[in-house]
Amino acid sequence: RDEKIRVSSLEQPYIIEAFCLGHSEFVSELCIPPNHPQLLLSGSGDGTVRLWQYLCGTELDCFKMSDVQASGCQKARCTVTRIVHCEQGDYLAVLCDGFSSVYILQLDVVAQKLIHRQTITVTQRAWDIAFDDSSGLWILDGGMVVLYQAQEGHWQNILQHPDKWKMEEAIHGQMEGSQDSVIGNNYSSLYKVSLNNVAQYQWKKELRIHRTLNKRALEPGQLSGHSKRTRV
Questions:
Q1: Is residue 98 a contact partner of residue 115, using CB atoms and an 8 Å limit?
Q2: Degrees to nearest 5, angle at CA 57 with 55 and 61
Q3: In sequence order, what are the beta bridge partners of 104?
């Protein structure tokens, strides 16, 4: 539930070497591009994807997912749940909780920017995403598996692929027993609770004080003394 990213070494994880500060809600996803090990991508419950030089805690860019959501479909809360990286072209696929779209970003290492390239809308709900060794983007769309590949800078759906039916068969068997638990999963409990009602805050504060005073009045010493006076 912490919005801070702490950087430490595996040998001494208790020593914090740097902090990456900028998210306003819990950090939900981290990704280090293998071909750019000095960079870190992070997703959060604040609906942003941020680019860092994490060894020194420097934020290079902040991409707001609300900027690429369809008009009228913006949600009050948006949690970034998955960030996957493709070395060929430095593409990123981003998945948000409860959305039926996968967002394709591109990492511009020279300009140190994240650029939106395409939004892929699925038919049901995107549960998970992954790039394969051939730079194909696999999307788990409900109980189906769909494949997208970049062709002349545009990601297109590949309808026929020899591995699609094998993957669908394997995933379908795993999802039968876990579908209900996955559907019920959400991130609402991780968000900060804001208290805007001052009167309610004062009432809770007075209630705590009253309980504390009652507890002190019933301390063991005072309680035994009271019992003796009662017997007299």
A1: no
A2: 115
A3: 93, 118
Q: Do the Cβ atoms of 66 and 47 come closer than 8 Å?
A: yes
Q: What are phi and psi of 199, to 5 degrees?
A: -65, -40
Using the 8-state DSSP alphabet, how is residue 229 labeled?
H
Determine contact, residues 84/129, Cβ cutoff 8 Å.
yes
Q: What is the pLDDT of residue 232?
A: 45
Residues 65 and 87 sit within 8 Å (Cβ to Cβ): no
- Dist. CA 57–CA 43, nearest whole Å: 15
For residue 129, count CB atoms less than 10 angstroms from its CB and return exposed for 0-12, middle for 13-18, buried for 19 or more: buried
Tens digits of residue pLDDT in 73-129? 556 688 999 999 999 999 999 999 878 899 999 999 999 999 999 999 999 889 999
pLDDT tens-digit series, residues 125-164: 899 999 999 999 999 988 789 999 999 889 999 988 877 7
Is there a contact between 37 and 60 (Cβ–Cβ < 8 Å)? no
Decide: 176 and 144 in contact? Cβ < 8 Å.
Answer: no
Please, are residues 128 and 140 in contact by the beta-carbon 8 Å criterion?
yes
- The Cβ-side half-sphere exposure at 85, using a 13 Å CA radius, reads 20
Element (H, E) at 210: helix 198-217
What is the b/e burial string over 22-53, where b = at least 16 CB atoms within 10 angstroms of the residue's CB? bbebbbbbebebeeeeebbbbbbbbbbbbbbe
State the residue for tokens 């970034």. Answer: 80
First-to-last alpha carbon distance for the chain, in angstroms, is: 57
